[in-house]
Design brief:
By secondary structure, the chain is mainly α. It has ten helices and no strands. The radius of gyration is 21 Å and the shape is elongated. The relative contact order is 0.13.
């Protein structure tokens, strides 16, 4: 087995269903159904609910052996949510926090394009997925290298826009749903509802946008290189 194949196997994604269960479904059910005074109570219920995404984040870090920038922000987001609730801060801070995380990511993506190193290129165009040498040689032979760089930069701006969408929707969803004082049972229930709704309202549309950007990049590659998709990917 080659080192590239070993790296691919090592970096295999976790089961998406398990991620949704640990990060969304279980915390939401605990917050909405078991944080009342007759069960866990608002404080213990919140702590128990947060244990699941935090534990999963730690498990994923140990399994992968590294923590990327986006995963780190997600981990900090969970801790901040707990801090806002446990210290009973104004709920406005929750909306700001929900908007700030994707905004930071979007700003990072945007700046990477301005500095000529689009983050999108690093995410999509890597030697684990594509035969980069073959692709770059084909671009160079056709004189399309600069054109390709411009197209990737444009796609990178589109990627930044997906995070603008996510930031805006996160803020609006938090403002709309979470209106009760932090630390209350109602706050926990609304937090659980917001977490549950964030998947169909924000995550799925964002994923559709990302798929659209990926398809756009593939079409650009096939057009500018004259290669078929099957010829560009590492099939081994």
């Amino acid at each position: 087995m080659t080192s590239d194949n070993q790296a691919i196997n090592k970096r295999k994604k976790n089961n998406p269903l398990i991620e949704i269960v640990f990060n969304i479904i279980i915390p939401s059910v605990i917050l909405m159904k078991f944080s009342g005074p007759e069960y866990l109570g608002s404080v213990i219920g919140l702590i128990v609910a947060l244990i699941f995404p935090i534990s999963y984040g730690i498990y994923d870090f140990i399994k992968a052996g590294s923590l990327n920038f986006i995963s780190l922000l997600g981990f900090l987001s969970t801790l901040l949510t707990g801090g806002i609730a446990l210290f009973e801060l104004n709920v406005e801070w929750l909306a700001i926090k929900e908007a700030a995380i994707p905004a930071i990511i979007g700003f990072t993506v945007l700046m990477s394009g301005f500095f000529g190193k689009p983050l999108l290129a690093k995410l999509l165009l890597n030697s684990l997925l594509f035969k980069l040498d073959t692709i770059y040689d084909a671009l160079d032979e056709r004189g399309n290298t600069q054109n390709f760089k411009q197209k990737i930069t444009n796609a990178n701006y589109l990627l930044a826009l997906t995070f603008v969408f996510s930031s805006t929707m996160n803020y609006l969803l938090a403002k709309w749903i979470v209106t009760s004082p932090a630390g209350s049972v109602e706050f926990n229930e609304q937090l659980g509802e917001m977490t549950l709704l964030s998947y169909p309202v924000i995550a799925i549309p964002s994923m559709i946008m990302l798929i659209g950007i990926f398809i756009y990049v593939i079409k650009v590659l096939t057009k500018l290189t004259g290669m078929k998709f099957e010829e560009m990917v590492n099939a081994e």
